[in-house]
Amino acid sequence: MTLGDAQYISRDDPFAAARRQAADRLEACGLPKRGQEYWKFTDPSELNQIHSLHSLSSSITPHFGRSFELSMVGDWQDPVQQGISPRALFDGIPRSVIDIDGDDAEFELSPDIVEHGSACSIEQASLRDSSWVHEVFGELESQAHAPVPRALAAVNTRYARCGVCIRADGINAKPVEIRYSASEQQEDAVVRHVFKVERGASLTILETGTLARRTNKVLEVEVEDGASFHHVQVQGREHERVSSGHVFARLGAESTFRSFTLSVNGLMTRNECVITMTGDGSTAHVAGAAVGDSKFHHDDTVFVTHDSLDCESRQVFKKVLRNGAVGVFQGKILVKPGAQKTDGYQLSQGLLLDDLCQFLAKPELEIYADDVACSHGSTCGSVDEEALFYLRSRGIPSVQAQDMLALAFLRQALDEIEDTRLTEALQELLLDWLARHHQ
Amino acid sequence: MIKITNLHACLEDENTPILNGLDLQMEDGEIHAIMGPNGSGKSTLSYVLAGRDGYKVTDGKVEMDGNDILEMEPEERSAAGLFLAFQYPVEIPGVGNMTFMRTALNSQRKARGLPEVSAADFLRLVRSKARQLHVDPGMLKRPVNYGFSGGEKKRNEILQMAVFEPKMCILDETDSGLDIDALRQVAAGVNSLRGPGRAILVITHYQRLLNYIEPDVVHILVNGRIVETGGPELAMRVEETGYKPAPAGNA
Ligand SMILES: Nc1ncnc2c1ncn2[C@@H]1O[C@H](COP(=O)(O)OP(=O)(O)O)[C@@H](O)[C@H]1O
Ligand SMILES: [Mg+2]
Questions:
Q1: What is the pTM of this model?
Q2: Which ligand 1 atom lies nearest to the CA of residue B36?
């Protein structure tokens, strides 16, 4: 058996070429291993599992939604039964919703899901007039394969059969929410979304819920000149969740890209974000807030490449950790020769609620231009005892006071979200989650 | 209202005593002042009463309405009606002042078995108190004490006192950092809370504040114990002659 299973790629597969190349890349680089520089703080073995399950079944054409008997391990519970359905999260905010159910890849996708543009599923991509999908699918992922191989993303390109493709060609005021729900049958999911925001257009994507216990997800986002793309995803609050996520974005001139991730709980999370600023005057903000307890390992790995003039990038990541939870941040700003007037900022902070926790950060700047302003800061500390006492002296019970301080700590990351309605909805959610935590 | 008997305290990780057998008793409706030189243990007393970590009570008793408060958590003391206006109010970035005060008030009420105050009622309450105390409404929208001037911080403490309506108030050097107008306004705020059902302990370094808040009783604290107790005239004397060693018989 070979790693990429190239021989099983069907001729009828609309993405056959991209899949073959992904298989080759995978073959060449192999799956990630603990101890490699890019996996310095995170053990990828659990994430690699998603690959082996798919490749084993690939001779019978992996179909998203199939329940793999092989893979029924763990005690994955329906999140709805656990009373943690995120459904109410963005209620009250006008938006379109795409439901993706762990049992059924053939989700309904009405073409008017976007006001200005078009949409189809990955499966439909060959049927509809969607040549644009082929220009993006696998393209951004493969370009991000250097200088570091991203094998898990190649796995996604090779195997993903479920996902959404949206092209925006005008200002879309209404966000599109992709809402995942899992079932007990669905152990693993490989999901791929492809977005293209055309010149001057805008698109906001929200992602909520969990599709499977183990997920490998990739977003490719092409943001053309003057366009803007906003992304807010919520990962929570199942303890067993294992997920590998990649966001690959390519930014044209004067474009805007914003991505925010809220993560609560989960066993193993690796969120990679790879942004390349190819047009002058573009802006990219990536931020994340994470809250984890005990067997929680949460890794944000960000790679921003400035390859044009006058671009601004910001990274703001905050993690609240307790009971031995581990938070990782690897963030790099690469300023290529000639990318003058670059403004790069990076902040990563860990709040450790006890001394069993670890926050491991590797901030990096690599700069080949002389007229740039780049700064980074990384701190990790415990709760401010003075502040805690102040709150308690006003009657606020210790646990609640600690939550208030944790929320306050995360707030700076939440404030990176442009739409304050979303910020407030997430703030409420966090408050609720923190309160449930103590029950 | 409060009865402190033979209170001895030191820092948790050191054995150097700070409070050395302090006795103090206050009745309902009274205002007492504690004056003392720097380092005499005034703030330590206020922290020990409020329940801050880091201090060890090695002997003595503090009763509020007959209940031993030294066994209580800080939040329980607050719910029982104790309030400390900090000498150095803490800045808490990221926590809105209004959210903080409402959470605090409702926590206290919950602990007392009272229903929560709604957001709308709370807003009305705070606005009217803020007006009375000449608190800039902008301060309500900012994070707790964050970026406040020294004077704003002290006003914010008195605003909380007005909102929570505690039974036993301790004001630790509330006058420091206030200009004369602010001092008058803060004193007027404190005076408006004076009355039955409440006792106020004013800790100060200078006699100046006591021109505006007239105490019933003045205590002199030196080296962690009350060395002299008298009426308002005692404060005047200290202002003129300084904290002289306590008269013989008391030392
Ligand atoms: N947290 C602390 N760490 C070290 N020393 C302290 C601490 N708190 C109080 N002290 C010491 O205890 C004594 C009394 O301090 P304090 O109560 O602040 O006095 P006051 O408020 O009367 O000026 C001083 O000698 C001070 O240095
Ligand atoms: Mg003091």
A1: 0.88
A2: 22
